[in-house]
Design the sequence.
């Protein structure tokens, strides 16, 4: 199954918006698993991603940073077999 990973932190309104948009995609495209990673729980992730969140990856490949590229994400997920 395809894994969409959202790197963010609590209180980040852009992260909340990205999560809502990703969840809404479940109605449109093939099934995928959404994993959320709170970067505040890991000092290395916090240092790496703080200025770039939300960071969205599909199966480990970065799709977008700072602002969700919903069209790109949708296009990638549309290619996944159902």
Sequence:
């Amino acid at each position: 199954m395809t894994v969409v990973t959202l790197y963010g932190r609590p209180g980040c309104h852009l992260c909340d918006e990205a999560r809502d948009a990703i969840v809404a995609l479940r109605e449109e495209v093939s099934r995928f698993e959404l994993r959320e990673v709170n970067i505040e729980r890991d000092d290395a992730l916090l240092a790496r991603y703080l200025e770039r969140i939300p960071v969205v990856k599909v199966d480990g490949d970065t799709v977008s940073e700072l602002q969700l590229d919903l069209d790109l994400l949708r296009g990638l997920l549309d290619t996944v077999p159902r």
About this structure: The beta strands are 2-8, 32-38, 55-58, 61-65. The first strand starts at residue 2 and ends at 8. The CA atoms of residues 56 and 67 lie 9 Å apart. The radius of gyration is 12 Å.
